[in-house]
Amino acid sequence: MSGFYEWRPGDPAGPLNSRGVPVKQPFLIERADHQLLAVAGLWSAWRPPGCPESTPWRHTCTVITTDANATVRPVHDRMPVLLARQEWSAWLDPGNSDARSLMSLLRPAPESLLQIRPVSPEVNSVRNRGPFW
To answer: InterPro entries attached here (predicted)?
Structure first.
């Protein structure tokens, strides 16, 4: 992915939304070199227990998070686990059952990898289209 967003709680002295709640400030977090981010995740296809074989498979996924690094921490306490290119094969290998080596990948990204910047609150709604940074 090219980046991800996190929102810092709104300033009570700042602008309010239509419900009178302070507007949260969104931040775009991306690689400082603008390369893509590889995110650690899990994927599964399954059927609910006890369902007949004719029941369609459910496909589910999740992004794994870790503690925020110093770059992200001013905005949020968590961040996705970001994998370096040399870690991709270990993470994606379905035959890799070395839990210790896989767990060692679940750590915050180096601070120098990322940059963070505020972007327009327009990113808060899927109705809005276009670049808002």
So the answer is: SRAP (IPR003738), SRAP-like (IPR036590)
